[in-house]
Structure formats: C-alpha cells, structure tokens
Model the fold of this input.
Amino acid sequence: MFQFLKMFLYIAVPLGVGFGSFQYLKTIFFTPLDVGDAQTKIVTIEENKSLSDVCKLLVAEHIIRKTHSVCLYRQLKGSTEPLVPGEYELSPAMTPAEVLAKLEKGDRFLRTVEIPAGSSVEQVDKLFSDLGFFERYQFDAAARDPKELTRAGIAAESFEGYLGTGTFQFASPLKPSKVLWEMMERSEQSWASQYTEQLDKLRMSRHEVLTLASIIQKATDGPVERRMVSSVLHNRLENGLKLESLEALTYGIRDFDGTIREEDKALPSPYNTFLSYGLPPGPILNPDKDAIEAALFPAESSNLYYGRSQSGKLVFSATPKEHEENLKS
Done:
C-alpha cells in the first residue's frame, strides 16, 4: 500500500504541478481579462516608453491582467523589435497575445479626417492642429519646404494648389510630410490625361491652370457658375486686362479679417491683381476636380466681369456699365 501511495505521489505531484503551471500560463498569456467586455478604448503608447512602462499602462487601462502577461510573454517569444508608438484600439476581451501582436505590428487606430474641397494650406494646417495631430504651422512649414518641393518636382514656393482633398485616414503619431504626400498623391490620381492635352490647347502650364482653378473655386458655389467665372478670367487674360480678383487679393492680405476695403486694392502684393497684370504667382487654395475642369474648359461668352449683386447672386457682364447695373440688382 505504501509503495502504491509513493508511486502515486511520484506521478501525481509532477502532473499536478505541470497542469497547474499550464493553467497559470494559459490564464496570464492567452486568457482575456474579461471575455465579456468587448467595448474598445483608445490607448496611447508614447514614444520611447519602455516595455515595462507599456505593460503597466495596459494594466492601468484594464486591458490585461498582469504586467507579465505581455512583458514575460514577449521575452519568452524572443521579440527584440521596439513596440510601435501610437494610438491603439484595445479591449479587455483581447488576449495578451493579441494585444502584443497589435503593438508589434503597429496596427494602430486610424482616425478619419475630412479635408473640405477648396481648403488652403493654412486651413489644412489649422485642421490637423485642432485635431491634435501636430503643432500649429508644422504642416504649413512642410508645404513650403524647398526639399519637399524639389522632390515633388514642383517649381513653386508652396504645395498650395497641388493637394487633393476629401476623406483620409491617418494614425497617430503623424508627420506633416505624410499628410502632404498623401494629399498630393490624391491630387495626382485625379489629374486625367485629357487635362494635359487641354493645357497644350490653352497654351498654359499646369501651375497656371491650378492658379486659375483656385480663384474660380473661391469665387463660386457650383459647377455652372465656375465655368462662367472661368470664361470671364480667360477673356480678361486674352484681352490684356487685369484680373482684378478679390479672391486673390484677400489671399495676399496678412491676417485678413473678412472685410475688403477700397484701400486694400492699393496694397502692394504679388496677389493684388488690381495692380498687376496676369495671374498671381500661384494658387490661393487647393481646387477640386470640378474647379480644375472649369479652368480647363471655360464656358463660351463675351463676359469680362463677374461679382456678387446686392441680393448675393453671382452676376456676369460684358461691359462696365452692365456690370455696375447688375451689381445693384
């Protein structure tokens, strides 16, 4: 009997220890903190944080049970690559192994950002600053970086006019240059081959058409108006008249308060087309596809003037007298 008991203990104790160890490791490495709580939360892993700090954060955020659920597991795996900083969508229903896999792959939470059509570089800069992606004026500085402009093959002082708008998804942390290039690629994708053919017919450069399109976009609300404004601008250029664009003028006024004064038209500025002939030096915002097409394919008319009437309607005229009367309507 004693021999049997001794033999039983020799077998049972190691099995019990092994089973207990297995259950313990299974619990800390592969069992969620709360399998019934699938509600996610955004957890931010900051740059240069140690593995120990990250594990403590995950415990504090109630994502994992114990720090060694991730720390020890990662060491046992032999992983040496640094964890990718950023925002992660995590929940207590995830296993520690699943949490670690996200952090190692950099499977970060993507935030949707809507950049309105016709946004200027300054407006995009403010948008991303307000969303907390980066500091104010960082995007503006990137958009004027000579190295980035050279890399993009843009012979201008800024990316203004060359950036596509719409819906984007970005992960944090985010560099201004990444936003810049994704917006530029969006713009490139929408530039059709027939646009280049039309440039040749108009004897204009892409930069000139983007400049024209940006003025058209700011002056109008819809596609029909845009082709009519385009017609006026093309007609004035062809007839050697100054554009006298209020839209370009305001772009060149520092800290413009929304009110145009008569004396503003005498301000020395490369964007003041009341003083200078031809187009301003560059776009005043980032035009959408419709505005670009309006610049490339203007309506046929003899109109030389456009403006907002007292009722707010955009009116078009062929003569100064007609224009003056239309503005009063």
Notes: The radius of gyration is 31 Å. The chain has a mean pLDDT of 89.
